Amino acid sequence: MAEVGGFCAELRKLWRPLLLWLTLGTVALAALFAAMSQEPDHSYIGNLRQGEADLHAQPPSASDLGVPPGPKYDKALAEMYRDAHRQTQDALAQGVVVGATQHPAGALGLAARLMASTLGALVMFIIAGAHTGGEWTLRTLKDVLARDPRRYRFVLLKIGSLWAAGLWLVLCAWLGLVLMGLVTRHVWPLPQPSSQAATWLWAGRQVLRALPVLLLFATVGVCLSVLVRNPLGALFGGLILIVACGFASRFDAIERAVPVVWVGTWMRFSAASAPQSYLLDHPFSANESVLIGALPSLVAIAFLIVAVTAASVAAMKLRRDILL
């Protein structure tokens, strides 16, 4: 019961204006990303449909096609009609991918993927800096450890509460995308998936994949906060870490050992997207040509979580000035 009480106490500490503003900001960024995906696809499909209609209404002449009138002209014109129709159908098939984000199931999958991307990492580092590093800047750590001196418990409770905050952000981003979808389905109508059950199954897999990634973000955030003991320091440390991992992932010799590649492989982000800028990834894209398998990626993420947690506990125990 004491552990449950400690966890609830950490959750109450998290419920502060910073979390509220970050929640609103996360929802706004998720909505912006969805809009940046849906509006261009809607316009592109509309332009193709209009072009196909114009082609039928005013077909090019034989001289325009550079062929003599007769069978050759008829064949060239029919080929143009087929190409235009094929291009429209391909765009509609691809539009289903983005159109699914206007559906509650697709919105849930998109919310989970965004929080498992660079956006989620930055938000989690900000919360970790305030939630953990703030114990030093606000001089409340002495009181916390006076009630329970077990420093490993302090680290585990911080990680657990931050993980819960990440789940809260996924939920809020999902609700925001669902409300947005009610509007964009009329403003930018896109083709919808034929099977809602398959879309819900896809979304459920994305949420399950995001769980260990959010736990990794929370663990790294707590470790940075313990090391620097400052909210801004934890944020800047996280930024440096993301940039460094992104830079290292560009070298073929070491890319398989870079954590962002593990995350990208596990989440099946597109290989065409740079690991340090997963927000550019297509909402439903899948990386089929992964560098390492999904299971090795999950094992590597789990190992990193354990190692970083141990490092945080060790750093807490080695510091003799915590209670000063």
Describe this structure in words.
The chain is mainly alpha-helical. 77% of the residues lie in helices and 0% in strands. The chain contains 12 helices and no strands. Helix 8 crosses helix 9 and helix 9 runs parallel beside helix 12. About 6% of the residues have low confidence.
Short structural description:
The chain has helices spanning 2-14, 17-57, 62-65, 71-99, 104-115, 118-137, 141-147, 151-187, 196-228, 231-248, 259-267, 294-318. It is an all-alpha fold and 324 residues long. The model is unreliable at 273-290 (pLDDT under 50).
Mean pLDDT: 83
Helix vs. strand class:
mainly alpha
What is Rg?
A: 25 Å
**Number of helical elements:** 12
Which regions are unreliable across 5 or more consecutive residues at pLDDT < 50?
Answer: 273-290
User: How many β-strands, per DSSP?
Assistant: 0
Helix and strand sequence: HHHHHHHHHHHH
- Overall geometric form: elongated
The main sheet comes to: none
Kindly estimate the percentage of residues that lie in beta strands according to DSSP.
Answer: under 5%
Q: What's the N-to-C terminus distance?
A: 30 Å
> What share of the residues lie within helices?
over 70%
Please supply descriptive tags for the structure shown above.
single chain, 324 residues, 0% strand, 12 helices, mainly alpha, elongated
